[in-house]
UniProtKB/TrEMBL annotation:
<keyword id="KW-0046">Antibiotic resistance</keyword>
<dbReference type="GO" id="GO:0005524">
    <property type="term" value="F:ATP binding"/>
</dbReference>
<feature type="domain" description="ABC transporter">
    <location>
        <begin position="7"/>
        <end position="231"/>
    </location>
</feature>
<dbReference type="InterPro" id="IPR050763">
    <property type="entry name" value="ABC_transporter_ATP-binding"/>
</dbReference>
<dbReference type="Pfam" id="PF00005">
    <property type="entry name" value="ABC_tran"/>
</dbReference>
<dbReference type="InterPro" id="IPR003439">
    <property type="entry name" value="ABC_transporter-like_ATP-bd"/>
</dbReference>
<protein>
    <submittedName>
        <fullName>ABC transporter ATP-binding protein</fullName>
    </submittedName>
</protein>
<dbReference type="InterPro" id="IPR003593">
    <property type="entry name" value="AAA+_ATPase"/>
</dbReference>
<keyword id="KW-0813">Transport</keyword>
<keyword id="KW-0067">ATP-binding</keyword>
<dbReference type="InterPro" id="IPR027417">
    <property type="entry name" value="P-loop_NTPase"/>
</dbReference>
<dbReference type="InterPro" id="IPR017871">
    <property type="entry name" value="ABC_transporter-like_CS"/>
</dbReference>
<keyword id="KW-0547">Nucleotide-binding</keyword>
């Protein structure tokens, strides 16, 4: 990864009438990075992305993509692939015709059969769009975004409606795009996918960043957890714990390995079984749940 900014957003404001949907938002996405723009419902992610993609004008502030205004479509459009939440495919066209048509509009060159193979729609090449399943339509959306291996790819909720195999395939394709040097901007409500794949995350709430950083930077502010059940009566615990509604004990810790070791040794020394034991690092879900409580 180099430090070249592919996307540079400075003090972006977006208003709809009197309503300020995005307020003083600044961020950069560097070349080769996978940047996830996440947030609560109505946080302003779509409004921000639409501006970066060139579909919407900023109320104030500057947005640069490859050093140019994204409103200058001729300068930037052929360099970016966009997977929207819903694409407007013509229902009467076949899959092959749709990819050929929309791919051609991108100004990039590629082979339709190659793209169909990538998204596993080769067998559906002659099928009309109206006869595709929801997941197949989503893969068709993805096909148009990866056509011609663009330098910058926007993926808006890319795996919604996809079965697990298709999700794995999509992420494998994203991995290959990154190996080819593409920069990826992702929005998703599947936080585990962002946790697994994103280099950095911008976490939006009410029009601005609640947090921004790597997954480790976002999660390190909250404790990791250990949970387990015990037979009663049990001897006094060796670490501080609270009792949850289901009767299990909850240990919150910033020293997961050390405290887990203490608990396991205590259980062994006392001949106790730790029922339904769970231990894990802080997840992005926890960071989300903490929004509004801080
Ligand atoms: N055309 C519009 N006119 C007026 N208000 C709008 C318009 N589009 C969006 N908004 C408002 O701006 C805010 C941000 O919307 P946006 O769609 O950008 O959020 P989001 O983060 O993508 O949300 P979600 O996760 O729910 O899709 C919301 O409160 C929404 O109601």
């Amino acid at each position: 990864m180099t430090s070249t900014a592919v996307i540079d957003v400075e003090h972006l404001h977006l208003s709809y009438g009197d309503f300020h949907a995005v307020r003083d938002l600044s961020f950069q996405v560097r070349q080769g990075e996978l940047y996830a723009l996440l947030g609560t419902n109505g946080a302003g992610k779509t409004s921000t992305l639409e501006t970066v993609e060139g579909h919407r004008a900023a109320t104030s502030g500057t947005v640069r993509v490859f050093g140019q205004s994204p409103r200058d479509r001729r300068a930037v459009r052929s360099r970016m692939g966009i997977m929207l939440q819903e694409s407007g495919f013509s229902p009467d066209l076949t899959v092959k015709e749709s990819v050929g048509l929309i791919g051609g509009l991108t100004g990039r060159t590629d082979r339709v059969d190659r793209v169909l193979h990538i998204v596993d729609l080769t067998r559906k090449a002659g099928t009309r769009v109206s006869q595709l399943s929801g997941g197949e339509k989503r893969r068709l959306d993805f096909a148009t975004a990866v056509y011609g291996t663009p330098e910058l790819v926007f993926l808006d909720e890319p795996t919604t409606g996809l079965d697990i195999q298709s999700r794995d395939d999509l992420w494998a394709t994203v991995g290959r795009l990154r190996e080819a040097g593409s920069t990826i901007v992702l929005t998703t409500h599947y936080l585990e996918e962002a946790q697994q794949h994103a280099d950095r995350i911008g976490l939006m709430h009410q029009g601005t960043f609640h947090r921004e950083g790597t997954v480790a930077e976002l999660t390190r502010t909250l404790p990791a957890v250990i949970r387990f059940g015990l037979p009663t009566p049990a001897p006094a615990l060796p670490v501080q714990a609270t009792r949850e509604a289901d009767g299990r004990f909850l240990v919150e810790t910033f020293s997961l390995q050390k405290d887990l070791h203490v608990v396991l040794r205590w259980a062994r020394d006392n001949g106790l079984e730790l029922r339904d034991l769970e231990a894990g690092p802080t997840r992005l879900d926890d960071v989300f749940r903490a929004i509004g409580t801080e």
